[in-house]
């Protein structure tokens, strides 16, 4: 697909891997989220993605925390959780594409003169030193020359845009360790927005944004005809709503979580206090997201026509209409599993739970 960062972390990708992967072999998408690990197993059959199995495991209990609480586990504990969810889901595939969190990645679109195209590797390595905030020797660099838009072609633009991605070697080594300990083989590591985009948008969508409401953070990407132009990491997520509700009402986290899910965003007078607790957090997230939309608009001189919400936090009742009010743009909820073939009787369940699986599903799709 056009938005895939094809060479991403190419140094770690076994180039011959696709050859090893028989056309009908199953693949896993693995998303190690802050509150839960999600896995999806797909198989390709005559150009269709067949859903074989999926599963989710809450990570909190592996770190002595409650179910649903975000936790940072070490590699051993993370691998233990991955093995448990694979077993629980009956997933037998061993080839995985694995998400690297957006906040562990440095992403920037840089502009270079067309003349740089002949010696891109050298030019980018030199340029990266100016942009990447840590020594280049400590990171793995990758880049992707972004295709020109029709307008840029017409204007015969003399610059090229390159998406620069840098990931700290420590992060990559940690992920490699986790995957090895889980008994899996990584076919590729990919930044989480690429996974969420692949499963959240349809073909031919013009300029749209995707927002992933996670437990501890919100991730956003803006795309033009499937090509990611901007990404943003917002350091608040749906668990911040739960924590604030727990603190303000004095109930424990589990009850606050239940309250959040049951009431959602409500206009009813009896829910006024709950709304007053959640509103400032949501406003912060939406304000940050809006800043990205504005930046995009002033840089590219066109606006986003639709926003797709995804991530478990997008299950919050009323969040889509809240989004429409905040952004004054059409808002849709993603339906990631609609990209797969699955038994009809599962459709309703998959539509309901699908939002949490968008990254894992998008990763697996990318490996087919
Ligand atoms: N029905 C619901 N209503 C409201 N919120 C919900 C609902 N179901 C799940 N959530 C919230 O979704 C969040 C988990 O979403 P998700 O699984 O996408 O997060 P994550 O991937 O673990 O976190 P992150 O992306 O920040 O690392 C939790 O905070 C949970 O409270
Ligand atoms: Mg997530």
From TrEMBL:
Pfam families: PilM_2. It comes from Candidatus Terrybacteria bacterium CG10_big_fil_rev_8_21_14_0_10_41_10. This is SHS2 domain-containing protein. InterPro entries: ATPase_NBD (IPR043129), FtsA/MreB (IPR050696), PilM (IPR005883). NCBIfam families: pilM (TIGR01175). It comes from the Bacteria.
């Amino acid at each position: 697909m056009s938005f895939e960062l094809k060479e991403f972390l190419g140094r770690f990708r076994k180039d011959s891997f696709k050859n090893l992967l028989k056309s009908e072999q199953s693949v896993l998408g693995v998303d190690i989220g802050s509150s839960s690990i999600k896995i999806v197993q797909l198989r390709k059959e005559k150009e269709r993605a067949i859903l074989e199995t999926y599963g989710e495991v809450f990570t909190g209990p592996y770190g002595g925390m409650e179910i649903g609480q975000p936790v940072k586990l070490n590699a051993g504990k993370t691998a233990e959780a991955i093995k448990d969810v694979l077993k629980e889901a009956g997933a037998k595939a061993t080839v995985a594409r694995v998400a690297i969190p957006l906040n562990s990645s440095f992403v920037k679109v840089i502009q270079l003169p067309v003349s740089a195209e002949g010696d891109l590797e050298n030019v980018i390595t030199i340029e990266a030193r100016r942009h990447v905030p840590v020594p280049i020797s400590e990171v793995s660099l990758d880049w992707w020359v972004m295709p020109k838009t029709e307008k840029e072609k017409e204007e015969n633009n003399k610059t090229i845009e390159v998406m620069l991605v840098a990931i700290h070697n420590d992060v990559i080594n940690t992920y490699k360790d986790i995957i090895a300990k889980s008994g899996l083989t990584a076919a590729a590591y990919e930044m989480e927005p690429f996974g969420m985009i692949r499963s959240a948008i349809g073909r031919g969508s013009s300029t749209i944004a995707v927002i992933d409401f996670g437990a501890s953070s919100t991730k956003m990407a803006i795309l033009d005809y499937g090509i990611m132009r901007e990404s943003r990491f917002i350091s608040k997520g749906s668990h911040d709503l739960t924590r604030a509700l727990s603190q303000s009402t004095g109930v424990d986290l589990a009850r606050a979580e239940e309250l959040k899910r049951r009431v959602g965003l409500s206009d009813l007078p009896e829910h006024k206090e709950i709304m007053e607790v959640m509103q400032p957090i949501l406003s912060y997230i939406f304000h940050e997201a809006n800043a990205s939309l504005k930046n995009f608009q002033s840089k590219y001189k066109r606006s986003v026509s639709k926003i797709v919400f995804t991530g478990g936090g997008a299950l919050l009742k009323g969040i889509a209409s809240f989004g429409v009010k905040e952004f004054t743009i059409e808002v849709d909820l993603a339906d990631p599993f609609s990209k797969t073939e699955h038994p009809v009787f599962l459709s309703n369940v998959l539509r309901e739970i699908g939002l949490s699986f968008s990254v894992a599903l998008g990763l697996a799709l990318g490996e087919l």
